[in-house]
Amino acid sequence: MSALHIKKGSSKHSAYNLRPTFSDVQERHTLALLVENEPGVLARVIGLFSGRGYNIESLTVAEVDHTGHLSRITVVTTGTPQVIEQIKAQLGRIISVREVHDLTVEGPSVERELAILKVVSDGDKRVEALRLADIFRANVVDSTLESFVFEITGAPDKIDAFADLMRPLGLIEIARTGVAALLRGT
Amino acid sequence: MKREMTGAKMVVQALKDQGVDTVFGYPGGAVLPIYDEIFLQNDIRHILVRHEQGAVHAAEGYARSTGKPGVVLVTSGPGATNAVTGLTDALLDSIPLVVLTGQVPTFMIGSDAFQEADTVGITRPCTKHNWLVKETDKLAGTLHEAFHVATSGRPGPVLIDIPKDVQFATGTYSGPKPAASHYQPPVKGDMEEITELVAALETAKRPVFYTGGGVINSGPGASQLLRELVDATGIPVTSTLMGLGAYPASGENWLGMLGMHGLYEANMAMHDCDLLINIGARFDDRITGRIDAFSPKSLKAHIDIDPSSINKVIRVDIPIVGDVGHVLEDLLKVWKARGRKTNREALAKWQAKISEWRAINCLAYKPSEGTIKPQYALQRLEELTKGHDRYICTEVGQHQMWAAQFLGFEDPNRWMTSGGLGTMGYGFPASIGVQMAHPDALVINVAGEASWLMNMQELGTAAQYRLPVKQFILNNERLGMVRQWQELLHGERYSHSWSEALPDFVKLAEAFGAKGIICKDPKDLDDAIMEMINHDGPVVFDCLVEKHENCFPMIPSGKPHNEMLLGEAETKDAIQAGGAVLV
Ligand SMILES: Cc1ncc(C[n+]2csc(CCOP(=O)(O)OP(=O)(O)O)c2C)c(N)n1
Ligand SMILES: [Mg+2]
Fold first, then answer.
1. pLDDT tens-digit readout, B251-296
2. Which ipTM score applies to this complex?
3. Residue B400 CA, closest ligand 1 atom number
4. CA torsion sign, B194 to B197 to B198 to B199?
5. Residue list, ligand 1 pocket, CB within 6 Å
6. Contact B323, B220 (CB under 8 A)
7. B292 to chain A, minimum CA–CA distance in Å?
8. Are B150 and B94 in contact (CB under 8 A)?
9. How much is the pTM?
10. Sheet holding B45-48, edge to edge
């Protein structure tokens, strides 16, 4: 026995009993960044993801502090735990990034997305679309005799579900904002 | 103190306030106002290079050999794009640079104006940070911030793009205020982790220090602390290519360089150790070889100022984020306070084991009476220049690896080489930058003929400023490192790895007013090297060496450390299909 306390991740055996590599389970994380709102800051963040081969599932950005000129970027990404740690560390290296929060770790958090959907149909389908919109608490923000434009907010899953239901009912166009997220509680 | 002045004048004023004495650059339309201000003063020397890539590498040489940031001034468009290789090189090797580029006037940006390029866009991924300054009032603050960012935390190159109208316009200048910056990376390591490392170090049976460029970047104090720690504990120390000189090559506990062309004893120690202490290195693929077989028996600690380096490729057990100098200071304090303990008995056995590995003499090569072996040339160079105030640069290839193996570095900041990017053409301009910073020193660029030709135009710069840089070219008339890989991996099909139509290097030197020396007989080598050293001016030394020599030891791609090739006999079929896709 080595006098050393060998933690998980180190193997005491020979090279041929290979050291376990990092876990390859894919995880989905929601990251919130506070960045200086200056030209190019979004390109820095996106360039990091594309340059290093990370995934972006969703990305939203808007200035949240008009006096301090700070924007909040919410990124939803997937990767192995090691890749997620790398993404956070790499984001932290960008000079214009002031704060990096992993809401999935720091959580629980609320996630909301807004979508607007155009549904073109008539007869029963039109009635059914309206009925489902009511169940999902979607609002009608525009209508003609042949169409509705619905507005819906909720977690991405809820929007996916609503869009799936609308598809056979005449969904022809959808626009989604991407996720905005905040930690729950104080 | 606030003053009104033009943007161009602010540039020069800010450089002075930042203590800059030398700028490497090349003029053009978009930087003429700044060149005008340079003309009107005498505090800052401007070195006119012959190509902007040369300016950036020269600034890297200056920075690496002084610990101060290197400064570059180039024009818009092609001036900026020519700087890109140097920026990438500096980013990968963490070299602090401040690069100033001219830009077309703000009102023309986006119009595809003459010599317009999206410089901040192009250089965003190859700088630590960059700025486009659109208002003269913001210029002074940005210039000072640029120096702060380049030199704080993990150092790196930054770039400021300055449109010509911003240079002409007047604004308010104020001096440096580093405390005002939001960028304040922590330098102190976590005491709990440091204590955990001390505890591991006290009991370890086969510990090894694996040091890197971070020790050099942390400043001479860090190298001093490393020496104290190594010598007080008796723990053997190896280093990456970038870290050579942090611990002296003549030191008792020195294992030599590790990695792909590292020493047998260093790689074996890495493979068999039970405690691996990474200080300012980054588990680069040249070092680790096969990841899942890397140092399989060890507890791993990693000291690095950049949190993204930790757990990037190798999972570590004791991560310590902080500046090497600060962490080593705390580490030594804790270790001393706990009674300066080590596992003496086990360490003695470990050192004995290492001596056995050392006795294999992995750098041995077949000597020759008729031709100059490249290794022999470097041994003679080492012998004849050892006592000098010496700085060594290199190009990239076999000669670079041999230089790392056969030259000994006693101090930090004496070794300038392109590690991360492996940029052929780095060494010559870098040697110019080093010589500018150390006018009386002996500055030698150990070169390959192919690399050297990539930036040979800088002979004009060396001649103009009478910089006595010595270009020691190990001329094998081959892209030697490429040839070696083709021999080992591609069935000896030497596709385009010849250096055809080489110039007569002596005549080439003379054409620029420099001295040329040619040597092909081992018997003449010492005299020729002495002639090079004693000549007061730039020298191009064409050393004709054995053409088919391979660089050993070598860890073939895809292999673990303990499957190193030591010489020609072992190379057949050494690299399997899986390894061949690696670079
Ligand atoms: C700019 C650039 N292009 C290509 C390479 C790939 N490369 C690595 S070593 C090498 C050959 C270098 O030849 P030489 O300078 O003569 O050195 P030698 O290996 O013969 O000592 C090449 C082409 C590189 N490292 N850099
Ligand atoms: Mg060559």
1. 999 999 999 999 999 999 999 999 999 999 999 999 998 888 999 9
2. 0.91
3. 21
4. positive
5. B 395-399, 422-425, 448-451, 474, 476, 478-482
6. no
7. 5
8. no
9. 0.94
10. B45-48, B22-26, B70-74, B97-103, B157-163, B129-132
